[in-house]
Amino acid sequence: MKQNLLTLPGLLLVLVAGATPVRAEVTLFEESFENGNLNQWTGKFGLPHHGQIVTDPLNPTNHVLTFTLVNAAGDIFSASPISLTGLPGRFILSFDFLGLPIGGVAPSEYGGFAGIATDSGVIYYWLAGTYLPALTVPFPVATVLAGDGQWHHYEIDFTDIVIANNLTSIQLMLEDWYDRGSIPGDVYFDNVRLRGTISPAAALIWPAVEVGWASVTNRLYQVQWTSQLKPNAWMELGPPVRGNGSTNSVFDSTRDQPKKFYRVVTVE
User: Fold this and answer.
1) What radius of gyration do the chain's Cα atoms show?
2) I need a surface site. Which of 40, 120, 136, 194 has the fewest CB within 10 A?
3) Under DSSP, is residue 173 helix (H, G, I), strand (E, B) or coil?
């Protein structure tokens, strides 16, 4: 395994002091579909997916995700498992959604769904969709998506699902559902983001840092830490993180540590 050390200007440390009553937040996954590729995504069980980046039908300067075929049980999944361990706060999935009639005629069901899965879809939880009976989580998590020809932004707190099912890592999943008259290309997603937050009460007793850096899409990065700047004293902080073409970040507790130093290396 070859490693290259990132220079310090590419490394950003944001300290969340234990005595500061503010909400800490870390981005676990982010996709705006502006990179021109779907390298952060994969199909179910590694098979081909039907996601496609297209021009936003309501804004020619924007790019969004749609689907060339309808599907079921998940079509496109975030490529790497997203760890949820070490974050005692809330987990929030946010995205923009558009259901748009094709040919001027609205289908009986647009079929746009968003959720989370474990083991590449072996167990899955549909958090939001255009058909309420197909959602597999209870209220208030279950969110009905509007298919009225306009973009809508959604924020879904699914922490209760994580706790109830003891989830330690997940993949995000999106699809254009095949049932109830749905047709390919009538749903669009944009600005998909998964973030974890720590409440002010938790932050008061759980000092931590967020380590962030500018990343290249699909490149692997390893965050390392040490309590003393000596050769061969660096230890790995969690598994490698796949770059998202924007800012990647990981969260780390500083409890019982008077000082910690961090660095990020590329893994080739």
Assistant:
1) 20
2) 136
3) strand
pLDDT in tens, 56-108: 999 999 999 999 999 999 999 999 889 888 776 789 999 999 999 886 667 77
Of 36-45, 60-69, 95-104, 147-156, least confident by mean pLDDT is: 95-104
> Which ranges of the chain would DSSP assign to H, the alpha helix?
159-164, 200-205
Query: Could you tell me if 72 and 90 are in contact, meaning their C-beta atoms sit under 8 angstroms apart?
Result: no
CA distance linking residue 127 with residue 173, whole number of Å: 10
Question: Which residues lie across from 43 on neighbouring strands?
Answer: 76
Residues in CB range of 68: below 8 A, 6 or more apart: 50, 52, 184, 185
pTM for the whole structure: 0.69
The token pair that represents 147 in the structure block: 């298919």
Structure tokens at 138: 């209870």
Q: What are phi and psi of 145, to 5 degrees?
A: -90, 135
DSSP secondary structure code for residue 24 in this structure: E
Structural domains of the chain sorted by starting position, each given as residue range(s) with its CATH number in brackets: 3-22+201-267 (2.60.40), 25-198 (2.60.120.200)
Give the H/E segment covering residue 64. Answer: strand 59-67
From 207, 239, 208, select the one nearest 223 (Cα to Cα).
239
Summarize pLDDT for 216-242 with one digit per residue, the tens.
877 888 988 888 777 777 888 888 888
Nearest to 51 by CA among 60, 61, 62, 64: 64
> Tokens 């770059």 correspond to what residue?
243
